[in-house]
Amino acid sequence: MKIDPTQRYKRELVAILSRLKKDKKIEKYQYDLLFPTAENIPRIYGTPKIHKPGNKVRPIVDYTGTIGYQTSRALADILSPLVGGTEHHVTNSKHLAESLAEVMIEEGEIFNSHDVVSLFTNTPIDESLNVIKARLEHDKTLSKRTLLALGVIRTLLDRMNSVISEKEDKDQKEGKIKHALKQCGYPEWTFNHVKRKMDRKQQATKVPGV
Predict the structure, then answer these.
(1) Which of 7, 108, 160, 169 is 20 to 30 A from 64 (CA-CA)?
(2) Per-residue pLDDT tens digits for 110-154
(3) What is the pLDDT of residue 165?
(4) Which of 86, 87, 63 is nearest to 75 (CA)?
């Protein structure tokens, strides 16, 4: 990554928040709360897993004070009612112990416990976002928690996802533009034609005397 994209991400987030305030989807106090005042870059550190052989380090990303910190907290409040809606959900270790106390092991049966290696760091982000979006689409109480449209929540989720490289960011934006044009009835060749012209113009500006 050649340059720090923090300022660009901040401008994009502020533009989204300004539009939401203008459309009266959020109140002024909410806008002031979500407005990114800090510009810290997410910091990564590690804690040793002293309970496991080799004492491997668990990577943790500290998001406190970053441009999307308050927005992430607001999204967490919107998404929190979706958690725990299945029969397999366990709240904490006490809940697990109480549930296991009712389990009777019959003769010839064994109790098997599995350990997941690097659970959160191996969770596929794209698939997780798709699951969240699908749950939101079927959430009948969403309108009681927020005035934000589902599409806006999706946009914020995508933006809060992670800091990506400049090339990846460009490729993703081009893909979204292509999709939007296709939805409006434009064939893909129109985008490719314009992009080639823009690329040639950009290359020409880099050549002295042209």
Answers:
(1) 169
(2) 888 777 776 666 778 788 888 888 888 888 888 888 877 777 776
(3) 45
(4) 63
